[in-house]
Amino acid sequence: MKIIKEYTKQNKQSHQTYQHAQKLLPSGNTRSALYWNPYPLTMTTGKASKITDIDGNQRTDLNYNNTTLILGHNHPKVIKAAKQQMQKGLVLGAPTETEPLLAEELLTRLKTDKIRFTPTGTEANMQAIRVARTYTDKPLIAKCTGAYHGSWDAVPLNPGAPGIPKGVEQNTIYFPYNNPEEAEKTIKKHRTQLAAVIIEPTMRDMTPKPGFLETIRETTTEHDILLVFDEVISFRLSRGGAQEHYNIKPDITTMGKIIGGGFPVGAYASTTETMTPLKIPATQLPETASPRLGFSGTFNAFPLAMAAGLTVMKEMTKEKYTKIARLGEKMRKGLQKTFKEENLNIHVGGTGSLFHIAWTNQEVYDHQTSTTADRGLANIFNIGMMNKGYYILGHPNVSTAQTRDEIKQALTAARETTQEMKTTIQKRTPHLIT
Ligand code: PMP
Which of 71, 200, 344, 416 could form an S-S bond across to 339 if both were Cys, CB 3.0 to 4.6 Å? Predict the structure, then answer.
Protein backbone atom coordinates (compact mmCIF):
# COMPACT_ATOMS: atom_id res chain seq x y z
CA MET A 1 0.00 0.00 0.00
CA LYS A 2 1.32 3.43 -1.04
CA ILE A 3 0.62 5.06 2.34
CA ILE A 4 2.60 2.39 4.21
CA LYS A 5 5.47 2.52 1.69
CA GLU A 6 5.75 6.27 2.23
CA TYR A 7 5.58 5.82 6.01
CA THR A 8 8.42 3.28 6.10
CA LYS A 9 10.47 5.52 3.79
CA GLN A 10 10.03 8.53 6.12
CA ASN A 11 10.59 6.68 9.39
CA LYS A 12 13.64 4.43 9.14
CA GLN A 13 15.17 5.37 12.50
CA SER A 14 11.85 4.88 14.26
CA HIS A 15 11.74 1.39 12.75
CA GLN A 16 15.21 0.57 14.06
CA THR A 17 14.38 1.85 17.53
CA TYR A 18 11.19 -0.16 17.51
CA GLN A 19 12.96 -3.36 16.45
CA HIS A 20 15.42 -2.94 19.32
CA ALA A 21 12.67 -2.08 21.83
CA GLN A 22 10.57 -5.04 20.74
CA LYS A 23 13.27 -7.40 21.99
CA LEU A 24 13.08 -5.82 25.43
CA LEU A 25 9.51 -4.65 26.01
CA PRO A 26 6.31 -6.61 25.32
CA SER A 27 4.98 -5.11 22.06
CA GLY A 28 7.91 -2.68 22.00
CA ASN A 29 6.80 -0.07 24.51
CA THR A 30 5.00 0.55 27.78
CA ARG A 31 1.62 1.84 26.59
CA SER A 32 -0.63 -0.41 24.53
CA ALA A 33 -2.35 2.72 23.17
CA LEU A 34 0.92 3.80 21.57
CA TYR A 35 1.33 0.80 19.31
CA TRP A 36 0.11 0.76 15.75
CA ASN A 37 0.86 -1.39 12.73
CA PRO A 38 3.51 -1.39 11.19
CA TYR A 39 5.35 0.38 14.08
CA PRO A 40 4.99 3.55 16.15
CA LEU A 41 7.14 6.65 15.79
CA THR A 42 9.89 7.44 18.26
CA MET A 43 9.55 11.07 19.27
CA THR A 44 12.45 13.21 20.43
CA THR A 45 11.27 16.78 21.00
CA GLY A 46 8.15 18.93 21.22
CA LYS A 47 7.67 22.69 21.06
CA ALA A 48 4.31 24.51 21.07
CA SER A 49 2.19 22.70 18.42
CA LYS A 50 5.09 20.84 16.81
CA ILE A 51 6.53 17.44 17.61
CA THR A 52 9.69 15.97 16.04
CA ASP A 53 10.65 12.33 15.65
CA ILE A 54 13.99 10.53 15.63
CA ASP A 55 14.21 10.75 11.82
CA GLY A 56 13.91 14.53 12.07
CA ASN A 57 10.34 14.71 10.72
CA GLN A 58 8.50 17.62 12.29
CA ARG A 59 4.74 17.31 12.55
CA THR A 60 1.86 19.37 13.87
CA ASP A 61 0.64 17.63 17.00
CA LEU A 62 -3.03 16.72 17.19
CA ASN A 63 -2.50 14.31 20.07
CA TYR A 64 -0.61 16.15 22.86
CA ASN A 65 0.09 13.02 24.88
CA ASN A 66 -3.52 11.91 24.57
CA THR A 67 -5.00 15.33 25.52
CA THR A 68 -2.53 16.22 28.30
CA LEU A 69 -0.73 19.29 26.96
CA ILE A 70 -3.53 21.81 26.69
CA LEU A 71 -1.02 24.69 26.27
CA GLY A 72 1.05 22.72 23.75
CA HIS A 73 4.59 21.42 24.25
CA ASN A 74 7.06 23.13 26.57
CA HIS A 75 5.08 26.30 27.24
CA PRO A 76 7.69 28.80 28.53
CA LYS A 77 5.75 29.56 31.75
CA VAL A 78 5.30 25.87 32.54
CA ILE A 79 8.99 25.16 31.93
CA LYS A 80 9.92 28.11 34.15
CA ALA A 81 7.70 26.89 36.99
CA ALA A 82 9.05 23.35 36.70
CA LYS A 83 12.67 24.60 36.62
CA GLN A 84 12.10 26.73 39.71
CA GLN A 85 10.70 23.71 41.54
CA MET A 86 13.57 21.50 40.33
CA GLN A 87 16.07 23.95 41.74
CA LYS A 88 14.31 23.82 45.11
CA GLY A 89 14.16 20.02 45.13
CA LEU A 90 12.58 17.23 43.12
CA VAL A 91 10.60 15.49 45.81
CA LEU A 92 10.89 16.44 49.45
CA GLY A 93 9.05 13.80 51.43
CA ALA A 94 6.69 16.40 52.91
CA PRO A 95 3.79 18.59 51.81
CA THR A 96 4.83 21.51 49.59
CA GLU A 97 3.41 25.03 49.28
CA THR A 98 2.09 24.44 45.76
CA GLU A 99 -0.14 21.48 46.72
CA PRO A 100 -2.81 23.61 48.48
CA LEU A 101 -2.51 26.27 45.75
CA LEU A 102 -3.39 23.84 42.97
CA ALA A 103 -6.05 22.36 45.27
CA GLU A 104 -7.64 25.79 45.74
CA GLU A 105 -7.60 26.52 42.00
CA LEU A 106 -9.30 23.22 41.14
CA LEU A 107 -11.80 23.30 44.00
CA THR A 108 -12.87 26.83 43.07
CA ARG A 109 -13.48 25.68 39.52
CA LEU A 110 -15.40 22.58 40.63
CA LYS A 111 -17.26 24.33 43.46
CA THR A 112 -16.51 21.58 45.94
CA ASP A 113 -14.56 21.23 49.20
CA LYS A 114 -11.71 18.75 49.28
CA ILE A 115 -9.22 17.18 46.88
CA ARG A 116 -6.55 14.48 46.90
CA PHE A 117 -3.69 14.18 44.38
CA THR A 118 -2.42 10.91 42.91
CA PRO A 119 0.29 10.14 40.33
CA THR A 120 -2.18 9.06 37.59
CA GLY A 121 -5.81 9.19 36.51
CA THR A 122 -6.00 5.45 37.08
CA GLU A 123 -5.16 5.89 40.75
CA ALA A 124 -7.54 8.83 41.08
CA ASN A 125 -10.37 6.54 39.97
CA MET A 126 -9.16 3.67 42.18
CA GLN A 127 -9.11 5.86 45.26
CA ALA A 128 -12.36 7.62 44.42
CA ILE A 129 -14.13 4.26 44.21
CA ARG A 130 -12.56 3.11 47.47
CA VAL A 131 -13.74 6.31 49.18
CA ALA A 132 -17.22 5.79 47.71
CA ARG A 133 -17.32 2.19 48.95
CA THR A 134 -16.11 3.20 52.41
CA TYR A 135 -18.49 6.15 52.67
CA THR A 136 -21.58 4.22 51.54
CA ASP A 137 -20.47 0.88 53.01
CA LYS A 138 -21.68 -0.83 49.81
CA PRO A 139 -19.65 -3.08 47.46
CA LEU A 140 -20.88 -2.59 43.88
CA ILE A 141 -19.98 -0.04 41.24
CA ALA A 142 -21.66 0.54 37.88
CA LYS A 143 -19.96 1.71 34.70
CA CYS A 144 -20.67 1.98 31.00
CA THR A 145 -19.77 -0.88 28.66
CA GLY A 146 -16.61 -0.01 26.74
CA ALA A 147 -15.73 2.94 29.00
CA TYR A 148 -12.08 3.37 29.97
CA HIS A 149 -11.38 4.46 33.54
CA GLY A 150 -7.73 3.39 33.73
CA SER A 151 -5.90 0.08 33.79
CA TRP A 152 -7.12 -1.71 36.93
CA ASP A 153 -9.18 -4.73 37.83
CA ALA A 154 -12.49 -3.15 38.93
CA VAL A 155 -13.14 -1.30 35.65
CA PRO A 156 -12.26 -3.43 32.60
CA LEU A 157 -13.68 -2.06 29.35
CA ASN A 158 -16.09 -4.97 29.11
CA PRO A 159 -17.13 -7.93 31.27
CA GLY A 160 -15.00 -11.07 30.87
CA ALA A 161 -11.62 -9.31 30.57
CA PRO A 162 -8.62 -11.61 31.18
CA GLY A 163 -6.78 -11.79 34.50
CA ILE A 164 -9.61 -10.58 36.71
CA PRO A 165 -10.83 -12.96 39.42
CA LYS A 166 -14.57 -13.70 39.55
CA GLY A 167 -14.70 -12.26 43.06
CA VAL A 168 -13.59 -8.90 41.72
CA GLU A 169 -15.57 -9.05 38.48
CA GLN A 170 -18.89 -9.67 40.19
CA ASN A 171 -18.70 -6.28 41.90
CA THR A 172 -18.87 -4.34 38.64
CA ILE A 173 -22.17 -3.80 36.85
CA TYR A 174 -22.42 -2.56 33.25
CA PHE A 175 -24.94 -0.49 31.33
CA PRO A 176 -24.79 1.05 27.83
CA TYR A 177 -23.77 4.67 27.36
CA ASN A 178 -26.53 7.04 26.23
CA ASN A 179 -29.40 4.77 27.23
CA PRO A 180 -31.23 6.48 30.11
CA GLU A 181 -33.82 3.71 30.49
CA GLU A 182 -31.18 0.98 30.88
CA ALA A 183 -29.12 3.18 33.21
CA GLU A 184 -32.12 3.79 35.44
CA LYS A 185 -33.13 0.12 35.40
CA THR A 186 -29.59 -1.02 36.29
CA ILE A 187 -29.18 1.50 39.09
CA LYS A 188 -32.59 0.69 40.58
CA LYS A 189 -32.03 -3.07 40.35
CA HIS A 190 -28.77 -2.87 42.33
CA ARG A 191 -29.62 0.15 44.49
CA THR A 192 -29.20 -1.53 47.87
CA GLN A 193 -25.66 -2.71 47.03
CA LEU A 194 -24.49 0.03 44.68
CA ALA A 195 -21.85 2.40 46.10
CA ALA A 196 -21.24 4.47 42.99
CA VAL A 197 -21.81 4.98 39.30
CA ILE A 198 -18.65 6.03 37.46
CA ILE A 199 -19.05 7.67 34.08
CA GLU A 200 -17.25 9.88 31.60
CA PRO A 201 -19.67 12.75 30.98
CA THR A 202 -18.56 12.75 27.35
CA MET A 203 -16.74 9.81 25.87
CA ARG A 204 -14.41 10.06 22.84
CA ASP A 205 -16.74 10.52 19.84
CA MET A 206 -19.84 10.08 21.97
CA THR A 207 -21.54 13.10 23.43
CA PRO A 208 -24.30 12.57 25.98
CA LYS A 209 -27.80 12.61 24.53
CA PRO A 210 -30.19 15.02 26.26
CA GLY A 211 -31.56 13.36 29.37
CA PHE A 212 -28.87 10.68 29.77
CA LEU A 213 -26.67 12.34 32.39
CA GLU A 214 -29.75 13.95 33.97
CA THR A 215 -31.43 10.55 34.46
CA ILE A 216 -28.30 9.10 36.05
CA ARG A 217 -27.99 12.12 38.32
CA GLU A 218 -31.63 11.92 39.42
CA THR A 219 -31.64 8.16 39.96
CA THR A 220 -28.39 8.10 41.93
CA THR A 221 -29.55 11.00 44.11
CA GLU A 222 -32.89 9.30 44.74
CA HIS A 223 -31.16 6.12 45.99
CA ASP A 224 -28.19 7.68 47.84
CA ILE A 225 -25.68 6.33 45.34
CA LEU A 226 -22.58 8.40 44.62
CA LEU A 227 -22.07 9.69 41.11
CA VAL A 228 -18.43 9.85 40.02
CA PHE A 229 -17.59 11.86 36.92
CA ASP A 230 -14.32 10.68 35.39
CA GLU A 231 -13.08 13.99 34.00
CA VAL A 232 -9.54 12.79 33.29
CA ILE A 233 -10.06 13.92 29.69
CA SER A 234 -13.24 16.01 29.81
CA PHE A 235 -11.91 18.49 32.37
CA ARG A 236 -10.43 20.29 29.37
CA LEU A 237 -13.91 21.32 28.16
CA SER A 238 -14.29 24.41 30.34
CA ARG A 239 -12.93 26.02 33.50
CA GLY A 240 -15.21 23.75 35.49
CA GLY A 241 -14.91 20.71 33.18
CA ALA A 242 -17.72 18.78 31.50
CA GLN A 243 -19.91 19.16 34.59
CA GLU A 244 -19.97 22.92 34.03
CA HIS A 245 -20.40 22.43 30.28
CA TYR A 246 -23.44 20.15 30.76
CA ASN A 247 -24.56 21.75 34.04
CA ILE A 248 -24.70 18.48 36.01
CA LYS A 249 -22.92 18.15 39.32
CA PRO A 250 -21.47 14.79 40.34
CA ASP A 251 -20.62 13.79 43.92
CA ILE A 252 -16.99 13.00 43.12
CA THR A 253 -14.85 14.30 40.23
CA THR A 254 -11.70 12.56 39.11
CA MET A 255 -9.07 14.30 36.99
CA GLY A 256 -5.64 13.82 35.44
CA LYS A 257 -3.74 14.85 32.31
CA ILE A 258 -3.96 18.67 31.96
CA ILE A 259 -3.82 19.39 35.72
CA GLY A 260 -0.20 18.16 35.99
CA GLY A 261 1.14 20.40 33.23
CA GLY A 262 2.86 17.46 31.49
CA PHE A 263 3.97 15.57 34.63
CA PRO A 264 2.23 12.41 35.85
CA VAL A 265 -0.84 13.36 37.87
CA GLY A 266 -4.35 12.50 39.00
CA ALA A 267 -6.81 13.92 41.52
CA TYR A 268 -10.24 13.33 42.99
CA ALA A 269 -12.43 15.97 44.56
CA SER A 270 -15.65 15.92 46.55
CA THR A 271 -17.46 17.42 49.49
CA THR A 272 -15.99 17.43 53.00
CA GLU A 273 -18.77 15.01 53.98
CA THR A 274 -18.02 12.42 51.25
CA MET A 275 -14.29 12.67 51.94
CA THR A 276 -14.73 11.93 55.69
CA PRO A 277 -13.19 8.44 55.37
CA LEU A 278 -9.87 10.22 54.61
CA LYS A 279 -10.11 12.61 57.57
CA ILE A 280 -7.62 12.20 60.38
CA PRO A 281 -9.53 12.46 63.67
CA ALA A 282 -8.46 15.23 66.08
CA THR A 283 -6.37 14.01 69.00
CA GLN A 284 -4.62 15.41 72.03
CA LEU A 285 -0.85 15.75 71.86
CA PRO A 286 1.25 13.62 71.91
CA GLU A 287 -1.13 11.22 70.14
CA THR A 288 -1.56 11.08 66.35
CA ALA A 289 -4.48 9.18 64.85
CA SER A 290 -4.97 7.53 61.47
CA PRO A 291 -7.86 8.11 59.10
CA ARG A 292 -10.41 5.35 58.59
CA LEU A 293 -9.15 5.02 55.05
CA GLY A 294 -5.43 5.65 54.66
CA PHE A 295 -3.90 6.35 51.28
CA SER A 296 -0.28 7.00 50.75
CA GLY A 297 1.87 7.15 47.65
CA THR A 298 5.54 8.10 47.41
CA PHE A 299 4.83 10.36 44.45
CA ASN A 300 1.37 11.70 45.37
CA ALA A 301 1.18 15.47 44.80
CA PHE A 302 4.58 15.29 43.05
CA PRO A 303 6.05 18.80 43.44
CA LEU A 304 6.89 19.25 39.74
CA ALA A 305 3.35 18.25 38.75
CA MET A 306 1.88 20.66 41.31
CA ALA A 307 4.02 23.58 40.08
CA ALA A 308 3.53 22.90 36.37
CA GLY A 309 -0.17 22.10 36.81
CA LEU A 310 -0.81 25.29 38.76
CA THR A 311 0.80 27.31 35.96
CA VAL A 312 -1.36 25.60 33.31
CA MET A 313 -4.54 26.18 35.30
CA LYS A 314 -3.70 29.86 35.82
CA GLU A 315 -3.04 30.26 32.08
CA MET A 316 -6.29 28.56 31.10
CA THR A 317 -8.67 31.50 31.15
CA LYS A 318 -12.25 31.34 29.87
CA GLU A 319 -11.10 32.88 26.57
CA LYS A 320 -8.58 30.10 26.01
CA TYR A 321 -11.25 27.41 26.49
CA THR A 322 -13.40 29.26 23.97
CA LYS A 323 -10.48 29.47 21.54
CA ILE A 324 -9.72 25.74 21.56
CA ALA A 325 -13.43 24.84 21.42
CA ARG A 326 -13.76 26.98 18.26
CA LEU A 327 -10.75 25.28 16.70
CA GLY A 328 -12.20 21.87 17.63
CA GLU A 329 -15.49 22.85 16.01
CA LYS A 330 -13.68 24.03 12.88
CA MET A 331 -11.95 20.67 12.68
CA ARG A 332 -15.14 18.63 13.19
CA LYS A 333 -17.15 20.68 10.68
CA GLY A 334 -14.26 20.67 8.20
CA LEU A 335 -13.88 16.89 8.41
CA GLN A 336 -17.62 16.37 7.96
CA LYS A 337 -17.59 18.62 4.88
CA THR A 338 -14.48 16.92 3.46
CA PHE A 339 -15.91 13.41 3.82
CA LYS A 340 -19.22 14.49 2.31
CA GLU A 341 -17.48 16.08 -0.68
CA GLU A 342 -15.42 12.91 -1.12
CA ASN A 343 -18.72 10.94 -1.24
CA LEU A 344 -18.08 9.20 2.05
CA ASN A 345 -20.48 8.68 4.91
CA ILE A 346 -18.26 8.67 8.00
CA HIS A 347 -19.03 9.59 11.59
CA VAL A 348 -17.18 12.59 13.03
CA GLY A 349 -17.75 13.14 16.75
CA GLY A 350 -16.33 14.85 19.78
CA THR A 351 -16.98 18.09 21.59
CA GLY A 352 -15.07 21.27 22.47
CA SER A 353 -11.36 20.83 21.74
CA LEU A 354 -11.82 17.08 21.13
CA PHE A 355 -12.60 15.55 17.75
CA HIS A 356 -12.86 11.95 16.63
CA ILE A 357 -13.36 10.07 13.38
CA ALA A 358 -15.16 6.71 13.50
CA TRP A 359 -14.97 4.90 10.15
CA THR A 360 -18.59 3.82 10.15
CA ASN A 361 -21.71 5.08 8.40
CA GLN A 362 -23.71 4.66 11.60
CA GLU A 363 -24.33 7.20 14.30
CA VAL A 364 -21.94 6.39 17.17
CA TYR A 365 -23.52 6.84 20.58
CA ASP A 366 -22.48 3.80 22.67
CA HIS A 367 -20.01 0.92 22.75
CA GLN A 368 -22.11 -1.26 20.44
CA THR A 369 -22.33 1.36 17.70
CA SER A 370 -18.67 2.32 18.15
CA THR A 371 -17.64 -1.27 17.35
CA THR A 372 -19.10 -0.84 13.84
CA ALA A 373 -16.15 1.47 13.05
CA ASP A 374 -13.35 0.03 10.92
CA ARG A 375 -10.21 0.37 13.03
CA GLY A 376 -7.97 -0.63 10.14
CA LEU A 377 -9.13 2.39 8.13
CA ALA A 378 -8.59 4.61 11.18
CA ASN A 379 -5.01 3.34 11.38
CA ILE A 380 -4.34 3.93 7.68
CA PHE A 381 -5.85 7.42 7.89
CA ASN A 382 -3.64 8.31 10.88
CA ILE A 383 -0.54 7.02 9.08
CA GLY A 384 -1.49 8.95 5.95
CA MET A 385 -1.83 12.09 8.09
CA MET A 386 1.57 11.41 9.69
CA ASN A 387 3.09 11.17 6.19
CA LYS A 388 1.73 14.66 5.54
CA GLY A 389 3.02 16.19 8.76
CA TYR A 390 0.28 15.63 11.40
CA TYR A 391 0.57 13.47 14.52
CA ILE A 392 -2.87 12.06 15.11
CA LEU A 393 -3.87 9.05 17.22
CA GLY A 394 -6.86 7.72 19.14
CA HIS A 395 -7.74 10.89 21.08
CA PRO A 396 -7.39 13.73 18.57
CA ASN A 397 -7.50 17.21 20.10
CA VAL A 398 -6.21 20.74 19.75
CA SER A 399 -4.22 22.90 22.16
CA THR A 400 -3.99 26.65 22.70
CA ALA A 401 -0.78 26.53 20.64
CA GLN A 402 -2.81 25.56 17.57
CA THR A 403 -3.51 28.11 14.84
CA ARG A 404 -6.44 28.40 12.45
CA ASP A 405 -3.98 27.94 9.59
CA GLU A 406 -2.80 24.63 11.02
CA ILE A 407 -6.39 23.41 11.15
CA LYS A 408 -6.99 24.56 7.57
CA GLN A 409 -3.86 22.74 6.38
CA ALA A 410 -4.75 19.64 8.41
CA LEU A 411 -8.11 19.55 6.63
CA THR A 412 -6.35 19.68 3.25
CA ALA A 413 -4.13 16.79 4.39
CA ALA A 414 -7.24 14.90 5.55
CA ARG A 415 -8.80 15.33 2.09
CA GLU A 416 -5.64 14.14 0.31
CA THR A 417 -5.28 11.18 2.67
CA THR A 418 -8.91 10.19 2.11
CA GLN A 419 -8.35 10.33 -1.65
CA GLU A 420 -5.29 8.08 -1.30
CA MET A 421 -7.44 5.63 0.68
CA LYS A 422 -10.24 5.42 -1.92
CA THR A 423 -9.23 2.06 -3.44
CA THR A 424 -8.84 0.51 0.00
CA ILE A 425 -12.22 1.88 1.07
CA GLN A 426 -13.84 0.57 -2.12
CA LYS A 427 -12.45 -2.91 -1.48
CA ARG A 428 -12.82 -3.06 2.27
CA THR A 429 -15.87 -1.00 3.15
CA PRO A 430 -17.87 -0.09 0.01
CA HIS A 431 -20.87 0.72 2.25
CA LEU A 432 -19.07 3.88 3.39
CA ILE A 433 -19.26 5.30 -0.15
CA THR A 434 -22.39 7.30 -0.92
N1 PMP B 1 -9.99 7.87 32.76
C2 PMP B 1 -10.07 8.27 31.49
C3 PMP B 1 -11.38 8.73 30.94
C4 PMP B 1 -8.92 8.24 30.68
O5 PMP B 1 -9.01 8.62 29.39
C6 PMP B 1 -7.70 7.82 31.24
C7 PMP B 1 -6.43 7.80 30.42
N8 PMP B 1 -6.52 8.00 29.09
C9 PMP B 1 -7.68 7.42 32.58
C10 PMP B 1 -8.84 7.46 33.30
C11 PMP B 1 -6.41 6.93 33.19
O12 PMP B 1 -5.52 7.96 33.39
P13 PMP B 1 -3.96 7.63 33.47
O14 PMP B 1 -3.52 7.20 32.11
O15 PMP B 1 -3.34 8.92 33.91
O16 PMP B 1 -3.79 6.56 34.49
Answer: 344
CB atoms within 10 A of CB 92: 10
Nearest to 172 by CA among 148, 186, 149, 155: 155
pTM of the model: 0.98
Residue with CA at minimum distance from ligand 1 atom 9: 150
| Ligand 1 pocket, residue 253 CB under 6 Å | no
Residue 68 in contact with ligand 1 by CB distance below 6 A? no
According to the model, what pLDDT value does residue 325 have?
98
Atom of ligand 1 minimally distant from the CA of 203: 3
Q: Give the position, in ligand 1's atom list, of the atom nearest the Cα of 123.
A: 16
Is ligand 1 within 6 A of the CB of residue 233? yes
Q: What does the alpha-carbon distance between residue 242 and residue 274 come to, in Å, rounded to a whole number?
A: 21
Structure confidence at residue 122 (pLDDT): 98
pLDDT, position 205: 83
Tens of pLDDT along 287-307?
Answer: 999 999 999 999 999 999 999
Ordered by where they begin, the domains of the chain are 2-70+317-432 (3.90.1150.10), 76-315 (3.40.640.10)
What was the pLDDT predicted at 172?
Answer: 98
Instruction: Confirm or reject: Cβ of 120 under 6 Å from ligand 1.
Output: yes
Residue ranges of the chain with per-residue pLDDT less than 70 = none
Q: How many CB atoms lie within 10 A of CB 289?
A: 10
